[in-house]
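Feature request, filed as a ticket because there's no other form

It would be nice if the structure record came with a short human-readable summary line next to the tokens. Right now we just get the raw output. Example of a typical job, pasted below so the devs can see what we mean:
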Amino acid sequence: MTLPQALFFDMDGVIIDTEKDGHRIAFNQAFSEFGFEVFWDVDHYGELIRISGGKERMRHHLETRGFGRPVDASQADELIRTLHKRKTEIFIDLIEGGGLKLRPGIHRLMKEANDRNVPICICTTATQKAAQAVAAKSLPDIRFAHILAGDIVARKKPAPDIYLLALEKTGADAARCVVVEDSRNGMLAGVGAGAQVVVTTSIYTRGENFDEAALAVTCLGDPAGERGTLIRGEVDGYQGVLTLDMLAGLLS
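Raw output as currently delivered:
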């Protein structure tokens, strides 16, 4: 069996379930610190994450609901950059404080890939600083070929740009690579790059349409911990734990 040439992991919702208890909390604290009467509850944030990128979500909210007091249009770009920078600092503090745990099966599958010399990349719209913090604090024993994050590409997911960049960086054949995502936008980005996509759903994405994915599960699964449930696709030998060999089987 031929192993994948590379594995490309999204971060938010895939490596750590960061959206509800990480990014959302950090956004709200940043708004509060700047004196804006903005609070993103769980349901509203679930709508906002369909927009790729934190700065883009803030801009959408500003343009559709406002920040509770007038914002000069000429100052909006700088304000959003400043807010987002502070939000990232708060988010990184949450990571470094150990309050955000890895999703089931992430460390196991990455370690298996390391042990079998399959390159791993993180490919995320989160900032480079946040992605580096997750890698350093939550996955210190995992080797990453590349960490591709933030505004490193012109177009964000569902555009395939970040995965096309990962393919360029690794020199891998798209048809022999697996993208691990949690959302429809992410899935479309991976499919658009020509890779096989495995979806591990999060609280915010479990009702989305993943018809184009090769496989969809509730989580990657750990033998001695939480096991996943198959949502879409078939894989030989699956009992709630998705292995590297199973991913290789998707490529055959």
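Something like this underneath would help us a lot:
The chain has a mean pLDDT of 94.
Residues 36 and 96 are 26 Å apart (CA to CA).
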